[in-house]
Amino acid sequence: WENNGAYPDIALLPVIANYFDITTDELLGVDIERKQQEINKIIEHNASLRSKGKSKESISFLREKIILYPKSADISYQLAVSLYSDLCGNREKTEETLDEIINLVNKATQLDKGKSYITFAGKQLLCMVYEMQERRDEAYKIAVDEKYRFFSFGDAMFITDV
Fold first, then answer.
1. Residue ranges of the alpha helices (H) in 30-116?
2. Is 21 helix (H, G, I), strand (E, B) or coil?
3. pLDDT, tens digit, for every residue of 136-147?
4. 148 — pLDDT class (breaks 50, 70, 90)
């Protein structure tokens, strides 16, 4: 099946889907497009909230949606960005929020598997959060591993692709 040489017995589809904890529709790729369309609408609505300066609403909205789509790299990343933006705007650095951002970015980059901007931008965000936590060695390790050139000036960190 993986090599497009044959298909499994139709009676095995529910067993395979159950093994991977997905629906048979997901296994066959039936509802993936619909699901991605719904996620895109969520991301658009969130962008609208953020453009209006409604960061608290953005965070609440994405927290609700991540429950519906826990394996969405897009939603995880956008929630991390909203939390970071809110944190920077309010200048209230809480370790709990910083740790949540780190967890969300790690989740998003693992789910993304290097397929989109999420991996690159997520690792940049991780560097900035590590800088806020004064964990510069970890920020530097990411930058070196990813071949980023970064510059740190006090609270500001600038990262560019080498």
1. 32-51, 55-68, 73-90, 95-112
2. coil
3. 888 888 877 776
4. low
